[in-house]
Amino acid sequence: MEILVCVKRVPDTAENEFELNSEGNDLDRDDLVYSVNEWDNYAVEEAIQIVDNVGGSVTVVTVGDDESEEVLRREMAMGANNGILLSDDAFEGSDGKGIATILKAEVEKGKYDLILTGAQADEGAGQVGGMLAAMLDLPYASLVNKIEVDGDSTIKVGREIEGGNQEMNEIDLPCVLSIQTGINEPRYVGIRGIRKVAQVEIPVKSASDLGIDASNVGEAGAKTKRVDYFVPDLGEGAEMLEGSTDEIIAQLIERIKSKGGLA
C-alpha cells in the first residue's frame, strides 16, 4: 500500500511562551521552537504500522519554507520512506483552500492508495483534509481513531462521534482520512535515526514544478484572511489561580468548600 501523509511544522506548545506580534494579528514567531504537528505525528505512526503489516511505503509531504525540511527528516527517522517539500514564495499566506490546492497537485503526480492528514493543526480549523478529498473527488472520513486493512479495494475505519460513541465504516480506496490523536502510540525518535536520514536527499517542488497557477494560492488566492488575534478577556467572576500544583489544588479545594461543594 502506497501511503502519503501530509504533515506541518508548528510552534511547540510545550517549549514556547507565546506573545502577539506588533500588528496584533498573529503570534510573534521570532525565536519560537518548532516541531511536527501532534495530529500529523499520529498519522505518520499509523501509516508506518499499516505498511509494516501489509507492505508498501510511506511518503511524508509538507508545504513550507526550507526550515520545514526538519519535520520531514524527523518523520523519516521515525520510519517514513520518503519526504517531499513543497516550497515556493508564492505559497506564503495560503489559506486552507490554498494549502489543499498545493497538496492536490502533488497527490496527482503520484499513485497513492491512502492519503492521511492530521485531524487539525495549530490553527484548529480542521479543514485541509476535507478540502483535499473534495478536490480529488475521493471518499473521506474525519476524526478517524481506528483503521483496519482487510482488502485491496476497501478498508474499515472507526470514527469518534458525539457522546463518546464509536462508528465503523467501510470506505473505498483510494481515500483521504483525517487522523485523531490516540489512534496509536507514536514511537520514540532517537538520535541514531535522525543521523541515519540526515544526508538523505529530499526533493523540493515549486509552483511551476507542480503546475500550479500562483494566483490560486498564497495571499493572492486566499479567500480568508486573519484580521485579529487576541486572548479573550476574562469573564465576570473568573479568577486565575497561581502557585505550584499543590498550592493551586489547595486553593481550589478551599473555594469549592466555600461554595458548599465539599463538606
From TrEMBL:
UniProt cross-references to InterPro entries, sorted A to Z: ETF_a/b_N, ETF_b, ETF_beta_N, Rossmann-like_a/b/a_fold
Pfam families hit by this protein: ETF (PF01012)
UniProt GO molecular function: electron transfer activity
Domain of life: Bacteria
Annotated keywords: Electron transport, Transport
UniProt-listed PANTHER family: ELECTRON TRANSFER FLAVOPROTEIN BETA-SUBUNIT (PTHR21294)
Name of the protein this chain belongs to: EtfB2
